[in-house]
Amino acid sequence: MIIIGLVVGVAAGIGATTTVLRNKLLSKSQQVLKDAEEKGEVIKKDKILQAKEKYLQMKSEYDKQVAERNSKLQSAEQKMKQREQSLAQKVEELQKKSNELKTASENLNGQIEVLNKRKAETEKIYKESIEKLEHIANMTAEEAKQHLIDTMTEEAKAEASNSIMDIVEEAKMTANEQAKKIVIESIQRTATEHAIENTVSVFNLENEEVKGRIIGREGRNIRTLESLTGVEVIIDDSPDAIILSGFDPIRREIARLSLHKLVTDGRIHPARIEEVVAKTRKQIEQEIVEVGKRTCIDLGILNMNHELMRMVGRMKYRSSYGQNLLQHSREVANLAATMASELGLNPKLAKRAGLLHDIGKVPENEPDLPHAILGMKLAEKYKEHPDVCNAIGAHHDETEMTSLLSPIIQVCDAISGARPGARREVVEAYINRLNKLEEMAMTYPGVVKTYAIQAGRELRVIVGAEKVSDVEANKLSYDLSRQIQSEMTYPGQIKVTVIRETRAVNYAK
């Protein structure tokens, strides 16, 4: 019973507890719902307020935009009204001007009619006057006009002929004076040197014992040196000297330097000679290139082809009638630049043409062409200026002159070669040349005396006045100059002067 009472008590307690808990949960859930409803109301009010504010803001912006559009439309309407007013004013002005133009046109038409009437009257009077003049002069208007034209033409021709003669005479005098002045100034402003070149080189020895070593056993050393250099080695009774003979200065220089190195070194045998000659030849080639570069730099010539520059360097070892070819070319270049400057031409091109005018004399292989033509072809090959090429080819009249530089180069070449001391000749050859000139002139009929003067630069021929006429004297001068040019070799040029003179002599007693 006790146990049952306990169970019933426990069950009653649990039931009471459950009821209390249930009541508490109900009250809490009701409170939570109430709080949620209150919060929902607050949020709802906030959202409604935000929506109202957004609406008011958007409405104010829209009203502002509408106001701006209205103001723009009003300003556009005002502008349109102003334009309409101005257009209306312009239309009125145009109508006024149109009326004025119509009035002016009517007035002008009236004036034109009056002018046409006066023109017709004037033409009628002019025709009547012409008919009266033709009747009085017995000549038509066309005949009178042609007569006047012919008279004026003849007078103009006569005056023009006189003016041309005066201009030509004045031009001749001025041209002669200017030419002499330019040539003299060019010669005076150009430094010159005398000829010193030769066809032999002398190699001096310290003692006679060296000669035997140079000759070698059975002459093997000399034969080796001669075959390698192409120079004749002459060992005679000259004390302490060996002569190197040859017409190629480059070969002579190679032989001389090789001998100097061999004698200094002391080892002289064929193998050593081959080695030294090969080294010396390379050294000379380098020196040739350096000389060409230095020459171009000294003369202020730029952008020259390397091969042409090398040919310029080879000129140092060439000579013409004893005149060093490089020195001659430099001299011609300076003379040509001076003359070109005086004449208002390009001095740089003239200097370039002067330096290159004789490059046809220094090619390694020498074809059967005149040196002027060969030089022109070389210049064309290495893209030189056409004026420079023509000046090179025409400086001995081998081709036609097409450039103003060509006669300048020809004149400067003659000046450089013809000046005193420029070129050297053997005395016997010089005397033979003078004698040949005089004898050649004496073979022509009518020649009385001949004189070679000015160191062979001029040949004066005196003819009999009764045997040779003036025309024949001119022909004799031409024929003799052509014969000299074709049969003789000489530096520069030779002037042929034929003198024909008639004298009448009487005595008063």
Explain briefly what this protein structure is.
The chain is mainly alpha-helical.
Characteristics:
single chain, 509 residues, mainly alpha, Ribosomal Protein S8, Chain: A, domain 1, Hypothetical protein af1432, Alpha-Beta Plaits, three-stranded mixed β-sheet, flat
CATH architecture of one domain: Orthogonal Bundle
Distance between the termini: 221 Å
- Proportion of strand residues: 5-15%
CATH fold title of one domain: Hypothetical protein af1432
CATH superfamily of one domain: Hypothetical protein af1432
> Which stretches are low in confidence, meaning pLDDT under 50 for 5 or more residues running?
191-199
Helix content: 55-70%
Q: Compute the number of helices.
A: 14
How would you summarize the topology of this molecule?
Elements (H helix, E strand, L loop, with lengths): L1 H136 L3 H49 L10 E5 L4 H7 L4 H10 L2 E3 L6 E5 L3 H17 L4 H30 L6 H9 L4 E2 L2 E2 H18 L4 H10 L14 H11 L4 H9 L10 H14 L8 H16 L4 E7 L4 E6 L6 H18 L7 E6 L9
Parallel strand pairs: 7-8
Antiparallel strand pairs: 1-3, 2-3, 4-5, 6-7
Helix pairs in contact: 2-8, 4-6, 5-6, 6-7, 8-9, 8-12, 9-11, 9-12, 10-11, 11-12
Q: What features would you describe in this structure?
A:
It is a single chain. The N and C termini lie far apart (221 Å). This protein has 509 residues and is mainly alpha-helical. Among the domains are: 103 residues, Ribosomal Protein S8, Chain: A, domain 1, CATH 3.30.1370.10; 124 residues, Hypothetical protein af1432 (Orthogonal Bundle); 74 residues, Cation efflux protein, cytoplasmic domain (Alpha-Beta Plaits, 2-Layer Sandwich), CATH 3.30.70. Helix 9 packs across helix 12. The protein is 70% helix and 7% strand.
